[in-house]
Design goal:
homotetramer, 194 residues
Chain lengths: 194, 194, 194, 194
């Protein structure tokens, strides 16, 4: 079974997640600039989540590029990732509406952590299926970003009980780390061709 | 007519169904952990429905893989399946908001039953069209899961008048049965190649 | 320019239209069967609209099948069709919530009429572009369904001032007419091959 | 990396944006024609935004047609464009509900301006990547519409403090300018073939 329909379904779900998050920004009733004020935290949490979904889409894109066939285990590992990402609009809305309060910020971190774990499970499932074998395994060997991110999310979640702002700073820093798409796979593929 | 656009439309509808269900989890007003409490049944019913839509997507994927051309009858048999699945977000939300009460749980079972019947009609339409003929027919001969599921849904619907929890247990068990994607078609295809 | 991305965008919009209509069926507050009663007209209008979007998707599918390249005029004729269809969820919700009252039923008919006109404009634009030329033109020559439908919609709209039920009957009858996908193009293509 | 999945994700997001805007038109409670009256400004702003998203989809289509491979920088330049367009439903709803008042009209102009800037950044990123090099660069040399539009948006935003109607007229005029899809790239491609 090829990867095309697998990609199409994932793209559809990610496109919908990234777009329905904006529905959490309810149109305000007043017509003056001040009416937008209370929406600022909702907007900022929307920006952070938009960047995160963008990062997942980019990395997902690269991951499947190194993969030639789809197994049943991969389908479910992928649905697991999409499940956690589908909770992002809810966590984003809750965090935004409560101006980055502690508990909503912690929940947001938990969703990010679960999505990161789901992504690693998907990577391992692809490697285990043998479809992309050595290319992806070589790339994963040096995967310091993939190992560091869950640790930072846990630190962020713990930080919410002390300072929610610090937690936000940590979440945003992890996003910055990943903004450059994952070139490891591209590098290994390029080396092979030489 | 090829199957690609047929798949793309089905993928789009299934991706939207799986994602808009999360909109039934309304962002709560409080900022404390207790505010999430009332959402737990909504969340659990979301998880169950997410798994069901995932199962339908997987099996749909395998079904069309055994099929080379699309007829008018198949288009409508497919729309019939998508229609019943499109009611799943409504039934999920009603069941979740009423903490798995009897009548909403029964309606949820009815939707699952109608979707299962619609899936069987789609299978038969594909076999009748001759496009996928013998491969799919051989696989369907041993289709104990496809025959057992509607029976279990009826038992579940009947059980709601006695114990809604038992009904939920039955619905979840049927989902477990199907979590492994349908390998029958793969097996028959593999045997042919030998 | 090929038709693939043109189809993909149309499929996406149609898949979203067909799915968000179900959001008009708000989850009721009570947990008993009677709570579903007031939703019955909303459900019936959802069924009618689901069938209509399904018909448009099927016919759109056949139409583009007879077409090999996409021009700027076709892109806009297609967006015009999608615009009118995008108003269907609104008209469906308004008609359903008011139990098929006269004015909402008339508005529903107007949307159907505008979509039918937009579809004919798209057909003509494709024929005029020369891309599908004679095959489609031959098929359109006998297009009694395409000519009769707008007339019936106008009769239905006029009927709403006298009996909204009659109007619904007319709208549903037109849908029945179209339930069989448009075989004219298939026939002409099949004759050519002989 | 090819452009197909890049296009599919962009199409998905644009299809969702164009469709969820219609959700801002809430179904009114009354069943008479007068109930639709207050929705007229919301409807008019929906039409304007629908046309704008249609224009972006068309031009995006042409832009990627002149491009053979996708880089990491292009992925993020594209997500930047989709981000600003994803704010269009919010700005459309706010402007429509406040009957084209000054501040919402100015915000609408700011979103259009940011999307126009994001589109130019995407164009430059594609040219800089060398993938589409000279074809697109030649076409961009005569890009008077791409240069004039941001200037007109700024004029429109400034005009809102004086007359919001004038601003609407300017926004609508820019849309008219673009309604003809971008033939520059087609022309340059056609000249090359000769």
């Amino acid at each position: 079974m090829g990867t095309s329909r697998f990609e199409a379904f994932s793209d559809g779900v990610l496109a919908i997640i990234i777009t329905i998050m904006v529905l959490e920004m309810k149109v305000p009733h007043g017509e003056h600039l001040e009416s937008l004020g209370p929406l600022l935290p909702v907007f900022l949490s929307y920006v952070l989540s938009f960047v995160y979904v963008g990062i997942y889409w980019n990395n997902h894109h690269h991951l499947l590029h190194a993969c030639s066939r789809v197994t049943g285990a991969m389908l479910w590992a992928n649905l697991n990732l999409l499940f956690w990402l589908s909770l992002l609009p809810f966590a984003t809305g809750w965090m935004g509406e409560n101006h980055f309060a502690s508990v909503p910020s912690a929940l947001y971190g938990v969703i990010l952590l679960m999505a990161a774990i789901a992504y690693r499970i998907l990577q391992r499932t692809i490697v285990a299926s043998g479809g992309a074998a050595s290319v992806l395994r070589d790339a994963m060997g040096r995967d310091w970003k993939g190992r560091l991110s869950p640790v930072l999310y846990v630190v962020g979640i713990a930080a919410t009980s002390w300072s929610a702002s610090l937690a936000q700073l940590i979440y945003a820093s992890v996003a910055m780390l990943w903004l450059v798409p994952d070139r490891r796979i591209e590098h290994v593929l390029a080396q092979r061709e030489n």
